[in-house]
C-alpha cells in the first residue's frame, strides 16, 4: 500500500500545481487540506481505490517547495542508470514507478513550529523547508571526519557542501584524508577532479574543489592512511572531537580498524561501498546498533597453492602468480633482509654465531641474498635474464621431468588432462617485446631494491642487448623434489634448511666478508610497496610481462595491461550512477544521526541498479552480553577505573569488584597477559604497581585493558567482560 499511497500523493501535487499555477506554500494548512481533497478524489478514480495517507500528503505539501540535495543524488543515480540502460540495452529497465521516501527524516519534526521551515533568504532555504532551521544549524556546526576521497568521497563532499556541513561561524569542520594521487582512470566517476589534477593528492584537490561549491565550508585535508601507524595523528582525542565519521573506502581491513576506533570512542560511523551497479550503506550509532565488526563477510576464495605454483588454468592464476613473485622478490624478502641485519648489526657477528652452532632464524636465506646481491646495472640485467630462464623454461622442463606427457594416474587416466595444462619451455628471444619487457622491468625493480643507480642510456636496447649477449645462462638440471598436487595443501610457512645449506652459508658469508661485500651499505635493501596507479614505477609492467610469459608457457590466453592491472590491483568495478545513489543515501542517514533520531529511524540499504532493486532494512539492534547476576554489557560499554601512582594490580582488581560487582580473574593488555592466575609467577604480580606492569610512556594518561571473569561452573570457559580503561591518576573532573 505504501508505494501506491505515495503515488496518489504525487499525483495530487501535480494536480495542485496545474490548478493553482504554483506549489503548496510552506506550512500552509489550507494548501495541505486542498491537496488532501485532490488526493481523495484521485483515489476514487483508481482501480483499487487505495487508502489516502494523510500524513504523506501533509508532509509532501509542507516540503514541496523544498529541495533535499542527498535525496536528489540518490534518485538521480537511479535515473542515470536507467538512461544508460536505454542507450546500451544492458541490464533490466525499471518497470512502472520507483519511489524513495524519507518520511523517517520529517516525521520526528512534526512538533516543530511552522516558522522553523520558513525561508531566511540564504542558500539553505530549500533545505530548511524540508528539515527545519534547527537541524540546518546542527549540520553547520558539525565536525565530520571523511576517510577516503575517491568516487564516494567526492560525492560525499558535494553533499556536505550543499547541506552546509562544517560552515558554522564558531563550530563545524570537515576533516578529510586520502593518501592516493589522482589517476587518469579516476576522472570518469570522481567528479571533483579534472585532467589537470592528474598526479596531485586527492584530498588536497578535493578540498579545493569543494570550496568552489560552498566557499564557507571549513575543511582540513590530510594525506595519511588511517591505520595503527598513524594513531598519533588520529588519536582518541581526535576521534572524540568528531561528531560523526564517514568511511568511503574499499579496504575492508581499514574499515574494520576505523570501526574499532569509533566503538572505543563512542562515535557514530556511516559506512558505504559500491561494486559496479551494486551498493550498500550501513549506519552505526553508539548504544543503539551493532558495529561493522559485529559481522564478518565470507572469506575470499583463494586459488589453491598447487594451481598457482605448477598448474595454472586461467589468466587469473598467472596474474596472481606474478603478483606473488613481485611481493616475494621486491617487498617480503627485502623486508626480512633488513629486519635480520637490524637484529644482528654485523656480518662478522653472524658468522661467529653460526660457526659456534647457534641457529639464527632466516640467516640462510639472508646470506644467500647477500652473496648474490647485484652491485651494478649490468648485474641487475643479468639477474633478470637468469630469472627469465628459471621461471619460463626450467620450471616447464622440471614439471615435464616429474610428470612426462604420457604420465597416468592410478585409475589409468592421463595426468595432463583438463584443467591441468602441460607447460612448454619458452625460448628467450630478445626481439620479442614481451621477453624484452620482462627483462627491463625486472632489472629496474632489482636495481631499486638493491639501491643500484641506472641512467636512461642503461635502459637503451643497445645497452641491454650488449649485456644479455654476454650472460651465461645456467643449464637445466632436473631435481627430485616432490611437486605438490594436492589442491587442499597450503603454502609452507618455513622451508627446512639442510646441513649442506648451512655449510654453504658459512662459506658464502666468509667470502663476502673477505671481499668487503658485507659492509654496512651491503646490509640494507629498499623494499617496494606495490602501487598500481603509478605507471612510471614499472610494477604493472613487470606483472603484465611475467603473467603473460607464464600464460604463454601454459598455452593460456594472455591479458592486456589494463585487465592485468584490474586483477592484480584488485580494482573494484565502479560506476558514477551507483556512487551518486549510495552517497546520497549516506548523507540522508547523516541528517538523522545529527538530529539524534531514535533507533527505528535509521535504515541500512542494499541496492543493485542493474536489476533494479533497492532494499531498506532497520539497523541491527546492539546485542547485550550477560556475565552473571544481572551484570551485562554491550560493545559500546567501557568500564572506567581511576588509579594513582602506587595503585597495585590487586588494587585494580578490587576496584573493579567494588565498582561493578564482579571480580576479574584475568587481565590482559593487548596481546600481553598481565595477570593469569595459572601462569607461573603471576600471583606475585598482584603486589606490583600498574605503572610497573604496564610501563606507560610519559604522556600516556590511560591504558585500555581486557578483563574476564571466572565461569559459574568449573570446566567452562572464562566469561568475557567489556574493555576497562584504567587512568593512571584521578582526573580533575
Major sheet details: 8 strands, mixed
Architecture of the largest domain, according to CATH? Orthogonal Bundle
The CA-CA distance between the termini, in Å, is: 54 Å
Radius of gyration: 32 Å
Please, what is the average pLDDT?
Answer: 92
Find the structural class using helix and strand composition.
alpha/beta
Number of domains: 3
Descriptive overview:
The chain is an alpha/beta fold. The chain is built from 24 helices and 15 strands. Strand 2, helix 9 (202-213) and strand 3 (219-222) form a beta-alpha-beta unit. Helices cover 42% and strands 11% of the residues. The chain is globular, with a radius of gyration of 32 Å. It has an eight-stranded mixed sheet, sandwiched between helices. Strands 11-15-14-12-13 form a five-stranded mixed sheet, covered by helices on one side. A two-stranded antiparallel sheet has the order 9-10.
Short description:
By secondary structure, the chain is of the alpha/beta class.
Secondary structure blueprint with pairings:
Blueprint (H helix, E strand, L loop, with lengths): L1 H19 L8 H17 L8 H10 L5 H20 L14 H4 L18 H7 L1 H8 L2 E5 L3 H13 L9 E5 L24 H12 L5 E4 L13 H5 L3 E4 L4 H13 L4 E7 L2 E7 L20 H5 L5 H29 L3 H9 L7 H9 L5 H26 L30 H17 L11 H9 L29 H16 L24 H15 L7 H8 L7 H19 L8 E6 L4 E6 L6 E4 L2 E3 L5 E4 L6 H12 L3 E6 L2 E4 L14 H5 L7 E8 L9 E9 L6
Parallel strand pairs: 1-2, 1-4, 2-3, 4-5, 11-15
Antiparallel strand pairs: 5-6, 6-7, 7-8, 9-10, 12-13, 12-14, 14-15
GO cellular component, one term: nucleus
GO biological process, one term: ubiquitin-dependent protein catabolic process
Catalytic activity: ATP + ubiquitin + [E1 ubiquitin-activating enzyme]-L-cysteine = AMP + diphosphate + S-ubiquitinyl-[E1 ubiquitin-activating enzyme]-L-cysteine
Amino acid at each position: 500500500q505504501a508505494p501506491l499511497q505515495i503515488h496518489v500523493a504525487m499525483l495530487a501535487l501535480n494536480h495542485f500545481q496545474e490548478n493553482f499555477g504554483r506549489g503548496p506554500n510552506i506550512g500552509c494548512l489550507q494548501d495541505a487540506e486542498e491537496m488532501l481533497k485532490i488526493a481523495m478524489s484521485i483515489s476514487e478514480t483508481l482501480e483499487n481505490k487505495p487508502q489516502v495517507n494523510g500524513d504523506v500528503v501533509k508532509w509532501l505539501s509542507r516540503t514541496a517547495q523544498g529541495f533535499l540535495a542527498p535525496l536528489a543524488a540518490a534518485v538521480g543515480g537511479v535515473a542515470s542508470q536507467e538512461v544508460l540502460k536505454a542507450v546500451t540495452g544492458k541490464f533490466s529497465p525499471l518497470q512502472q514507478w520507483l519511489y524513495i521516501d524519507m518520511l523517517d527524516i520529517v516525521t520526528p519534526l512534526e512538533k516543530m513550529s511552522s516558522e522553523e521551515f520558513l525561508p531566511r533568504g540564504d542558500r539553505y532555504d530549500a533545505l530548511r523547508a524540508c528539515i527545519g532551521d534547527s537541524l540546518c544549524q546542527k549540520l553547520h556546526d558539525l565536525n565530520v571526519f571523511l576517510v577516503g576521497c575517491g568516487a564516494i568521497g567526492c560525492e560525499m563532499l558535494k553533499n556536505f557542501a550543499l547541506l552546509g556541513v562544517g560552515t558554522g561561524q564558531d563550530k563545524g569542520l570537515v576533516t578529510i584524508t586520502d593518501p592516493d594521487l589522482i589517476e587518469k582512470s579516476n576522472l570518469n566517476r570522481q567528479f571533483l577532479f579534472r585532467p589537470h589534477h592528474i598526479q596531485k593528492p586527492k584530498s588536497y584537490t578535493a578540498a579545493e574543489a569543494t570550496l568552489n561549491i560552498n566557499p564557507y565550508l571549513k575543511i582540513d585535508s590530510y594525506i595519511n592512511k588511517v591505520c595503527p601507524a598513524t594513531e598519533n595523528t588520529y588519536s582518541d582525542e581526535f576521534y572524540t572531537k568528531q561528531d560523526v565519521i564517514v568511511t568511503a573506502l574499499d579496504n575492508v581491513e581499514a574499515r574494520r580498524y576505523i570501526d574499532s576506533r569509533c566503538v572505543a570512542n563512542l562515535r557514530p560511523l556511516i559506512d558505504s561501498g559500491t561494486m559496479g551497479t551494486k551498493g550498500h550503506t550501513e549506519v552505526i550509532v553508539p548504544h543503539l546498533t551493532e558495529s561493522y565488526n559485529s559481522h564478518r563477510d565470507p572469506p575470499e576464495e583463494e586459488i589453491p597453492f598447487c594451481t598457482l605454483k605448477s598448474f595454472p588454468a586461467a589468466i587469473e592464476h598467472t596474474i596472481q602468480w606474478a603478483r606473488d613473485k613481485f611481493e616475494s622478490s621486491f617487498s617480503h624478502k627485502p623486508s626480512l633482509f633488513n629486519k635480520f641485519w637490524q637484529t644482528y648489526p654485523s656480518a662478522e657477528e653472524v658468522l661467529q654465531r653460526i660457526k659456534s652452532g647457534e641457529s639464527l632464524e632466516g640467516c640462510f636465506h639472508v646470506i644467500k641474498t647477500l652473496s648474490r646481491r647485484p652491485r651494478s646495472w649490468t648485474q641487475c640485467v643479468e639477474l633478470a635474464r637468469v630469472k627469465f630462464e628459471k621461471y619460463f623454461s626450467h620450471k616447464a622442463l622440471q614439471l615435464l621431468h616429474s610428470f612426462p606427457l604420457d604420465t597416468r594416474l592410478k585409475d589409468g587416466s592421463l595426468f595432463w588432462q583438463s584443467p591441468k595444462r602441460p607447460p612448454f619451455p619458452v625460448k628467450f628471444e630478445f626481439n620479442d617485446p614481451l621477453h624484452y619487457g620482462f627483462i627491463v622491468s625486472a632489472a629496474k625493480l632489482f636495481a631499486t631494491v638493491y639501491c643500484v643507480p641506472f641512467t636512461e642510456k642503461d635502459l637503451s636496447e643497445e645497452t641491454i642487448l650488449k649485456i644479455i649477449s654476454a650472460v651465461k645462462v645456467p643449464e637445466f638440471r632436473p631435481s627430485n623434489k616432490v611437486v605438490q598436487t594436492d589442491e587442499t595443501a597450503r603454502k609452507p610457512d618455513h622451508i627446512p634448511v639442510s646441513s649442506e645449506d648451512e655449510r654453504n652459508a658459512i662459506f658464502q658469508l666468509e667470502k663476502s666478508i673477505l671481499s668487503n661485500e658485507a659492509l654496512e651499505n651491503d646490509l640494507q635493501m629498499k623494499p617496494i610497496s606495490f602501487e598500481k596507479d603509478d605507471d612510471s614505477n614499472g610494477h604493472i609492467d613487470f606483472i603484465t610481462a611475467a603473467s603473460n610469459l607464464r600464460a604463454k608457457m601454459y598455452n593460456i590466453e594472455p591479458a592486456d595491461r589494463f585487465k592485468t592491472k584490474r586483477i592484480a590491483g584488485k580494482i573494484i568495478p565502479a560506476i558514477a550512477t551507483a556512487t551518486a545513489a549510495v552517497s546520497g543515501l549516506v548523507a540522508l542517514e547523516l541528517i538523522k544521526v545529527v538530529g539524534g533520531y531514535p533507533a527505528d529511524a535509521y535504515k541500512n540499504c542494499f541496492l543493485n541498479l542493474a536489476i533494479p532493486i533497492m532494499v531498506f532494512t532497520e539497523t541491527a539492534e546492539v546485542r547485550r552480553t550477560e556475565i552473571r547476576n544481572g551484570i551485562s554489557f554491550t560493545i559500546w560499554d567501557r568500564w572506567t577505573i581511576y588509579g594513582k601512582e602506587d595503585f597495585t594490580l590487586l588494587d585494580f582488581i578490587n576496584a573493579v569488584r567494588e565498582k561493578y560487582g564482579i571480580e576479574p580473574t584475568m587481565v590482559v593488555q593487548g596481546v600481553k597477559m598481565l595477570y593469569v592466575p595459572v601462569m607461573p609467577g603471576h600471583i606475585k604480580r598482584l603486589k606490583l604497581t600498574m605503572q610497573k606492569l604496564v610501563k606507560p610512556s610519559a604522556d600516556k594518561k590511560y591504558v585500555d585493558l581486557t578483563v574476564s571473569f571466572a565461569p559459574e561452573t568449573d570446566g567452562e570457559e572464562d566469561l568475557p567482560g567489556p574493555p576497562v580503561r584504567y587512568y593512571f591518576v584521578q582526573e580533575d573532573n
